[in-house]
Design goal:
five-stranded antiparallel β-sheet, alpha/beta, Gyrase A, domain 2, 2 domains, about 270 residues, seven-stranded mixed β-sheet, Rossmann fold, 7 helices
Length: about 270
């Protein structure tokens, strides 16, 4: 069994504000350790279930958060940004399942540190008339390669959103949101046990029932930005259409082009920050 893991940081237990997620902040070194340990717990469950190849993609910020020296020795790590597939770099048809660890709710919802890829630039992402966050969009990318997302961990708000998107995906709730910057958090050792057991059980007993999340054919992508100047900055790309003051539309040939276009749009929009 081959397992792909994409790991973010905002959905890790104990992480509740920018001091935990921003490099050079006083809490960041602790958070990196918490993130690495939660990934290791998921890896332990995957190995118990028979995983022989495990690829981990560091998916937060500059994507250099995971402490490779503390990582399970059987895991291969993709570290660094400027990836063509961003949070899904390295995914391909060789994997039997994907796990999303430390994920969070989409922007404009009341999850802990909720946002959609870029909190500074993106207000909303719509794919084929459905509002999506990182979990849903990333799951569709995995589905393009016929890889089902078996399990996603994060807060209770994220869990609800995932169940509305695909009720068969297992979720592990490691904290309950009280507000965008407050959560009731499980102690890390309890989280590790929960993740290991849920990953093991999901891959052993439930994986056959979880189907890849797929979109066939062309994809209508809409992105709303924080203000009109950001939207205007994206119009240098042929095919991008301004449909509202801060919202653009692009018709992609498939979900992979849509995903890469979202990265390109964000990069241009951020140039006016």
């Amino acid at each position: 069994m081959n397992i792909y893991i994409s790991a973010d940081i905002e959905g890790i237990s104990g992480v509740v504000n920018g001091s935990h997620t921003t490099q050079n902040s006083f809490e960041y070194s602790r958070t990196r350790k918490l993130m690495t340990d939660e990934v290791n717990a998921a890896v332990k469950g995957a190995k118990r279930a028979g995983a022989k190849k495990i690829l981990l993609n560091d998916s937060h910020g500059k994507m250099t958060n995971i402490l490779i020296e503390d990582l399970d020795e059987d895991v291969i790590l993709i570290s660094g940004n400027r990836k063509l597939l961003g949070m899904m770099e390295g995914i391909n048809k060789d994997f039997n399942a994907a796990l999303f660890i430390g994920y969070h709710a989409r922007n404009n919802t009341n999850g802990v540190l909720s946002h959609s890829y870029s909190g500074a630039t993106i207000s909303e992402i719509v794919v084929n008339d459905n509002v999506v966050g990182e979990s849903e969009f990333n799951a569709l990318v995995a589905g393009n390669f016929d890889v089902p997302v078996a399990l996603i961990s994060g807060d209770d708000v994220l869990s609800k959103q995932i169940k509305e998107f695909n009720k068969d995906i297992e979720t592990v709730i490691v904290k309950e949101a009280h507000s965008r910057y407050t959560a009731k958090c499980l102690q890390p050792k309890a989280v590790h046990k929960l993740l290991e057991e849920n990953v093991y059980n999901t891959l052993t007993n439930k994986l056959s029932k979880i189907k890849p999340c797929k979109i066939q054919g062309k994809v209508k992508l809409e992105v709303a930005f924080k203000h009109s100047g950001m939207a205007e900055a994206t119009l240098f790309i042929p095919g991008v259409e301004l449909i509202e003051g801060n919202r653009v539309r692009y018709i992609a040939k498939d979900i992979i082009e849509a995903y890469k276009m979202r990265i390109a749009l964000t990069t241009l929009a951020s140039s006016v920050l």
